[in-house]
Amino acid sequence: MVAAARENTQFSPAAADQMEKIVFDLGRMYQERNEALQEVARAHHETLFLLSMAAEYKDGDTGIHIVRIGFLAEALALFLGESKDYALMLRKAAPMHDIGKIGIPDEVLKKPGAFTPQERAIMNQHSAIGADILGKSRIALFQMAAEIALAHHERWDGTGYPNQLAGQAIPLSGRIVTIVDFYDALTMDRVYRPAFSHEKALDMLLAERGKAFDPDIVDCFLRNSAAISALREQVTVGRMTFADLINRKQEAP
């Protein structure tokens, strides 16, 4: 009787084959689902990157600035001892830091000379606009990008905007990006001035140590400034693009 019950619980060869096929199909569906989700996230990222480039074009830039910001932020994060995963995500998120400029009227964004207090208030809204655009996604990459957009004009001494955060209350991603953005902006030609030299930019960065910028991150940047400058030149000469940000193999600093 026990033997008969055992026989009844055994799968026939046909049933076993069918079960194996179901398991295989489920595995394939799971893989296809993950690939589809990755493609959606990539398309989302590319769309937001292009929107960031549009914001830079509005501000008179060619777009290479935001690509450099990605690579320089990644390198600085690695020099600081952050994980490769964190640094790689920062590389992809940092270029979206000024996406909120897309919402600033041209008469303010492109105004030559100093802003009035009212114009400055309008311009300062770009941080919150960018965070709002990016923060609508639950994807970790865009959450980091929203964090950077909101934090990259905060100052170490608490006098920045929009939330007057101070010290380590400013997210690390924002503290890193604000420094590489400052350095890269100084060392590029602008419509109102020629580029500063690497040495002059470092002097200006040092002058803001402990004021605008995290002193430990400034010190790390200065220690590794030759490598960072070389990377900046490599990105510029190589005319790197969004595809490089996404696909380029991560290199040790």
What does this structure look like?
There is one protein chain. It is globular and about 80 Å long. The model is unreliable at 1-6 (pLDDT under 50). It has helices spanning 2-9, 13-58, 64-79, 84-93, 106-109, 117-123, 126-134, 140-151, 172-186, 198-207, 215-223, 225-237, 242-247. The chain has 13 helices and no strands. With 253 residues, the chain is mainly α. α3 packs antiparallel against α12 (225-237) and α9 (172-186) packs across α10 (198-207). It starts with a helix and ends in a 6-residue tail after the last helix. It has one domain: Hypothetical protein af1432.
Give the topology, please.
Blueprint: H1 2-9, H2 13-58, H3 64-79, H4 84-93, H5 106-109, H6 117-123, H7 126-134, H8 140-151, H9 172-186, H10 198-207, H11 215-223, H12 225-237, H13 242-247
Can you summarize this structure?
This protein has helices spanning 2-9, 13-58, 64-79, 84-93, 106-109, 117-123, 126-134, 140-151, 172-186, 198-207, 215-223, 225-237, 242-247. By secondary structure, it is an all-alpha fold.
Radius of gyration: 24 Å
The first-level CATH class name? Mainly Alpha
* Molecular shape: globular
List segments where confidence is low: pLDDT < 50 over at least 5 consecutive residues. Answer: 1-6
Order of helices and strands: HHHHHHHHHHHHH
- As for the number of domains, it is 1
* Subunit organisation of the chains: single chain
Biggest sheet record: none
List keywords for this structure.
disordered N terminus; mainly alpha; 13 helices; 253 residues; 0% strand; single chain
